[in-house]
Amino acid sequence: MPTVLMPTRQLELRLANRMSRLGTETAFEVLNRARALEKQGKDVVHLEIGEPDFDTPSNIIEAGVNALHHGWTHYGPAAGNPELRQTIADYVSRTRGVPVSSDEVVVVPGGKPIIFFSILALVDEGDEVIYPNPGFPIYESMINYVGGRAVPIQLHEERDFSLDVNELASLISDRTKLIILNSPHNPTGGVLTRKDIRDIANLIGDRNIMVLSDEIYSRLVFEGEDVSIMSEPGFKDRTILLDGFSKTYAMTGWRMGYGVMRADLAAQFSRLNTNSISCTASFTQIAGIEAIRGDQSSVDKMNAEFKHRRDVFVAGLNKIKGFSCRMPKGAFYAFPNVTKTGWPSKKLADALLEEAGVACLSGTAFGAFGEGYLRFSVANSLENLTKALSRIEAWTAKNL
Ligand SMILES: Cc1ncc(COP(=O)(O)O)c(C=O)c1O
């Protein structure tokens, strides 16, 4: 019998080069560090993760449980359950004012895969992608991962973190393949106005550039209105609209989101589903139909609560030495300017976690232009938000 020589040491892990270009989402790392501190007995207020603290509304839970009892436990079509796709098409037609059909909808596990798939499907090595900075870190991570050129557009506090169209004009080149918009915006809470959207659409004009419009916070607009570039004349076929269930219906753990795009591109996204996940879980999609079609009063209640918390928290931040915070118009984040503390953002965020027991994120977790800022999620109880404010205030009084 031949002798098989087994290696005595663990072999070197030879990752593909592209893995060195993959970024991450710091929120989960901070959450782990906060949990480790809690294990040592420290009390931490969690304002680092962007997820509603509410439970999923009960009508949606019931629909999901019923679906499990009624056999929705098998594979489904790659692009999504046909009834859910139609429900989403009707919802997007109504809310964005453009006719959408079900073959233009792809259901995926969360909003994130739409970012992943848009970049995988459209961006070749060397292609340029313009994306907001500060911004959701997955954009930059994915552009770098596929070998694209990440072209940040800085969002300025003096403009309430909306986008400067002249700056955008200066960044567009012959290699620009994709522009990423995100409104309401994570982490700043900025909201693009109808004029902003129109100016961006006019600027893109008839260039063959696709737009990924990340509208995951579309129902969380406190001032102004939610406007989609998809509604602009000529832009339906050039927009990939990303939306989902995580934030609107407090369904982060269900993993369900969707993209709306021209049908030929939707077919490609469906192939990406087949190659990666086969399909989104079948019973969650039945719950998704109930989420969109059912009673919306719990969404209204959660939003009213987020708005109230935002008002209290931002007012509180503005009383703290070295902090100044604009009123975010949407989403559930506060993004105060902390340059007057004299502390770099990351060092300040670390100190607040370790010394004050408040978990937040450094603005730099959202790109280089986030230096000078911190991000707090207000998706936590008023009691915890007030506790966080007094802890930060006490810490600054002692350390600044
Ligand atoms: C701007 C933005 N886009 C997409 C997502 C992803 O959402 P999901 O949890 O549905 O994948 C998030 C989540 O934080 C987000 O903030």
Helix content: 25-40%
Distinct ligand kinds: pyridoxal-5'-phosphate
Give the uncertain stretches in residue-range form.
none
Cα(first) to Cα(last) distance is 74 Å
Total number of helical segments?
A: 12
Largest sheet, in brief, is: 7 strands, mixed
Topology order in helix (H) and strand (E) letters? HEHHEHEHEHEHEEEHHHEHEEEH
How many strands?
12
As a whole number of angstroms, the C-alpha radius of gyration is: 22 Å
Output the structural class: alpha/beta
Give the percentage of residues in beta strands.
5-15%
Instruction: Kindly report the spatial arrangement of strands forming the biggest sheet.
Output: 2-8-7-6-5-3-4
Shape: globular
**Nearest-integer average pLDDT:** 96
Compact overview of the structure:
The chain has 400 residues and is an alpha/beta fold.
Note the main attributes of this structure.
400 residues, alpha/beta, seven-stranded mixed β-sheet, 12 strands, 12% strand, binds pyridoxal-5'-phosphate
Characterization of the model:
- The protein contains twelve helices and twelve strands.
- With about 400 residues, it is an alpha/beta fold.
- The strands form three sheets. A seven-stranded mixed sheet has the order 2-8-7-6-5-3-4, with helices on both faces.
- Helix 5 links the parallel strand 3 and strand 4.
- Helix 10 runs parallel beside helix 12.
- It is globular and about 60 Å long.
- The chain starts with about 25 loop residues before the first helix and ends with a helix.
- The model has no long low-confidence stretch (mean pLDDT about 95).
